Amino acid sequence: MIDVLVLDVNETLTDMEPLRDGFEAAGLPRHGLDEWFAAILRDGFALTAVDAYAAFGELAAELLADRLGAEENVAETVSEVVSGFTRLPLHPDVAPGLQKIHEAGIRIITLTNGAAGMSENVFRNGGILSLLEHRLDVSVPRRWKPHPAAYRYAAEVCGVPVERMALAAVHPWDIDGAARAGLQTAYIDRRKTPYPKVFRAPDLSVPDFEALAGVLQEKAK
């Protein structure tokens, strides 16, 4: 059993599909969202690998401006697209699942490579803000997940050993990083995506947060 459930944010809790509307409004292809998000992670991971750091928003803005090129009002367009992260909806399973997990007596926090402040309205509008004990990001350890320093920082804030925490995420690289840092792990597999064999396998694999809640409630009995 665990004391603290650590939640990834982007894609794990939030549905990023509405960001495609911002891409289309900016004159970019809707499928460009996937490449852009992957590039943000790539550059964040690369900087972490050489003991350097840049904020998610900084990388997101620069990479998007590069795609817009010499277009007029680039800064305004970039700001509008990036601000879309503050208006994303939660996946339908998130609120009911987290409510049940909270009722089971498990502390819940978020840990994101993005900025914690960007998700406050998202969580408030989705009805889960009051369930979250802490909303953390990697700006303090200055190491992006999946670096172990990010997960250990969360453990320090919560005052628990890493082995009493579990990370829930849709990203195999996040699951792998958390496992290597000593956390238990739960892979949220909404899309039924094959889990890469090169990564450490999750302790649990569930289709959504309601299913995860059911497992945790059983363990809590």
Look up the CATH topology of the largest domain: Rossmann fold
CATH class of the largest domain: Alpha Beta
User: Which strands sit side by side, in order, in the main sheet?
Assistant: 3-2-1-4-5-6
**Percentage of residues in strands:** 5-15%
Q: What class do helices, strands and sheet pairing give?
A: alpha/beta
Description:
The chain is an alpha/beta fold. The chain folds into 2 domains: 145 residues, HAD superfamily/HAD-like (Rossmann fold), CATH 3.40.50; 67 residues. 44% of the residues lie in helices and 12% in strands. It contains 9 helices and 6 strands; from the N terminus they run E-H-H-H-H-H-E-H-E-H-E-H-E-E-H. A 6-stranded parallel β-sheet has the order 3-2-1-4-5-6, sandwiched between helices. Strand 4, helix 8 and strand 5 form a beta-alpha-beta unit. Helix 5 packs parallel to helix 9 and helix 7 crosses helix 8. The chain starts with a strand and ends with a helix.
Task: Briefly characterize the structure.
Keywords: Hydrolase. The protein is an alpha/beta fold and 221 residues long.
Key descriptive features of the protein:
221 residues; alpha/beta; Rossmann fold; 2 domains; 9 helices; 44% helix
